[in-house]
């Protein structure tokens, strides 16, 4: 009975504790605080042509440059009308998009970004920045250049693949609408690709979900190499290693 009374008293004390103080129990010293799920400045909304609105919590605390890039491009309507051009369950479970040309080679007119590799894992729903792969036998300079080539493309994880950790910049995670991500059409590219009809930042007071056709995406900026998943050019077999992606245009 005394043990039960102790537990009840502990629960009552926690309930009486201010919410801010409770949150501090889970803070990690030396890390910036992550935004909460009600922080509209950091909620990225994707309305998909195959149905539904996907809500992604952006993480400027770990990837401020990529988050700022996504916000800029979203507000410029860059993503409206773009397709998910590389979608598969195996060997890597990803839905990749963000290329206005739809072939995995394009990006925005803005400069590429330096890598912001961080501690966030590539778990189900993680959203990560795509980049170029280094050629086989690449020098350290070539590897660094490839790592610092994120621009506009991104991918969403269907399932965990921790081999990507610290090789790509995770900058967000799906917190609502993952069931719509699961329905993104598969293929490289898909025969009938799923499109981002509209992309919004929640703070901009977007209208309710709509799958009405979006305006055509802006012209692609041609890159000097395909945007691929981590590991390409690291000496792995591109045909057999899931971390050695080839462009679907090859």
Give a written overview of the molecule.
Residues 52-206 form the PPIase cyclophilin-type domain. One of its GO terms (molecular function) is peptidyl-prolyl cis-trans isomerase activity. Helices cover 18% and strands 20% of the residues. The chain has 250 residues and is of the alpha+beta class. The chain has one domain (35-228): Cyclophilin-like (Cyclophilin, Beta Barrel). The strands form two sheets. It has an eight-stranded antiparallel β-sheet with strand order 3-4-7-5-8-2-1-9. A hairpin with a 4-residue loop joins β1 and β2. It is globular and about 50 Å long. The protein starts with a helix and ends in a 22-residue tail after the last strand.
Layout of secondary structure:
Elements: H1 2-16, H2 19-24, E1 43-48, E2 53-58, H3 64-75, E3 83-88, E4 94-99, E5 126-129, E6 131-132, H4 140-147, E7 154-157, E8 169-176, H5 178-181, E9 196-201, E10 227-228
Number of domains: 1
Widest β-sheet, arrangement of strands:
3-4-7-5-8-2-1-9
* Discrete helix count: 5
Q: Overall mean pLDDT score?
A: 83
Radius of gyration: 20 Å
What is the 3D form? globular
Distance between the termini: 70 Å
The CATH level-2 architecture is identified as: Beta Barrel
- CATH superfamily heading: Cyclophilin-like
Helix content: 10-25%
Number of strands: 10
User: Segments where pLDDT lies below 50 for 5+ residues?
Assistant: 13-25, 230-250
The CATH topology is what? Cyclophilin
The SSE order reads: HHEEHEEEEHEEHEE
Q: Sheet with the most strands?
A: 8 strands, antiparallel
* Oligomer description: single chain
SS content category = alpha+beta
CATH C-level: Mainly Beta
Determine the strand fraction and express it as a percent band: 15-25%
Pfam families: Pro_isomerase
Protein name: peptidylprolyl isomerase
GO molecular function, one term: peptidyl-prolyl cis-trans isomerase activity
EC number: 5.2.1.8
């Amino acid at each position: 009975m005394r043990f039960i009374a102790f537990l009840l008293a502990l629960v009552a004390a926690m309930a009486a504790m201010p919410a801010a103080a409770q949150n501090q129990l889970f803070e990690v010293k030396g890390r910036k605080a992550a935004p909460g799920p009600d922080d509209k400045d950091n909620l990225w909304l994707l309305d998909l042509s195959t149905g539904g609105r996907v809500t992604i919590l952006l993480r400027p605390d770990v990837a401020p440059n990529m988050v700022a890039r996504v916000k800029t491009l979203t507000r410029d309507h860059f993503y409206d009308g773009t397709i998910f051009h590389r979608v598969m369950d195996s060997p890597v479970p990803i839905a990749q998009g963000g290329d206005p040309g739809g072939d995995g080679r394009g990006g925005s007119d803005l400069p590429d970004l330096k890598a912001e590799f961080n501690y966030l894992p590539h778990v189900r729903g993680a959203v990560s920045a795509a980049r170029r792969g280094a050629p086989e036998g690449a020098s350290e300079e070539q590897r660094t250049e490839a790592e610092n080539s994120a621009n506009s493309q991104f991918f969403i994880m269907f399932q965990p693949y921790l081999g990507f950790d610290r090789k790509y910049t995770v900058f967000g995670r799906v917190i609502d609408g993952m069931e719509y991500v699961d329905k993104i059409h598969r293929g490289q590219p898909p025969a009938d690709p799923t499109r981002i009809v509209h992309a919004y930042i929640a703070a901009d007071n977007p209208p309710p979900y709509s799958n009405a056709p979006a305006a055509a995406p802006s012209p692609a900026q041609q890159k000097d190499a395909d945007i691929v998943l981590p590991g390409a050019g690291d000496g792995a077999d591109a045909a057999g290693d899931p971390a050695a992606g080839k462009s679907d245009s090859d």
